[in-house]
Design a protein that fits this description.
flat, about 5% strand, 2 strands, two-stranded antiparallel sheet, mainly alpha
């Protein structure tokens, strides 16, 4: 058990991502997400009753090594919190600190700078768990949506997929309708996204043009003399 305990205590030191040695600017997934680790520890605690598992889950939720990421954890965190809040009373008396930590993580995520798809991800998960979460995060959502719409034009430079950007437009409309947000701001955000789509497509066209014009094109120089040389041996055989 001592060895297993040491492994559990190391869970918050194992990175989620690691650099690719051959391409140091890129990363690869190295281990499970932070929310998956918490779920795993909760399961082990329920099966074994060992406090170490629950204490480690609380420690990770309070101060995760790689921090919670919207693309990794936005769907899972509201579900974890909903399960904690709906658990039997004998469990809830032990898991209170974990529920507080998870709630804080969700509020922090909603208060951060989120792309449209990231915000939609966490909002959808909260809605899915509405029966247990109630209106707990309404204020944060009603603040996060306007901030995303107002700032989306400054957060598009890293997106190079026209399909993702097209999805952004529908997501902005959907989230804006949810709170009845300023239609002029929504249209401005949509124009900014559309402008980025055109820029991405223009860059792609230029890259394609460069790849074509940059090639050394070998012309076919098969002329009459080549044709004569081809048939002369055949004619000689007939003679």
């Amino acid at each position: 058990m001592a060895g297993f305990s040491a492994l559990v205590q190391r869970l918050n030191t194992i990175p989620r991502w690691k650099r690719i040695p051959s391409n140091p600017t890129n990363f690869r997934a190295y281990d499970t997400t932070t929310s998956d680790r918490i779920n795993m520890l909760l399961l082990w605690w329920k099966l074994s009753g060992l406090k170490l598992f629950l204490e480690t889950a609380v420690a990770i939720a309070t101060n995760p090594k790689d921090q919670f990421k919207s693309w990794d954890d936005a769907r899972a965190l509201p579900t974890i919190l909903a399960n904690l809040l709906s658990a039997p009373q004998n469990e809830k008396k032990d898991t209170g600190p974990l529920a507080v930590a998870i709630e804080s993580a969700i509020r922090k995520m909603l208060g951060g700078s989120l792309d449209p798809d990231d915000l939609e991800r966490v909002v959808t998960s909260i809605d899915t768990n509405k029966a247990n979460l109630g209106h707990m995060f309404d204020d944060e959502i009603n603040t996060a949506i306007p901030e995303m719409i107002e700032n989306v034009s400054d957060n598009l430079g890293h997106v190079d997929s026209d399909s993702t950007l097209s999805d952004y437009i529908s997501t902005v409309e959907k989230l804006a309708n949810r709170i009845g947000y300023n239609s002029q701001a929504v249209e401005s955000a949509k124009r900014a996204i559309q402008s980025r789509i055109e820029e991405v497509n223009e860059n792609a066209a230029q890259d394609e043009e460069l790849s074509v014009t940059g090639e050394d094109v070998q012309e076919d120089t098969f002329d009459d003399q080549d044709l004569k040389n081809l048939f002369e041996p055949l004619l000689a055989e007939e003679d």
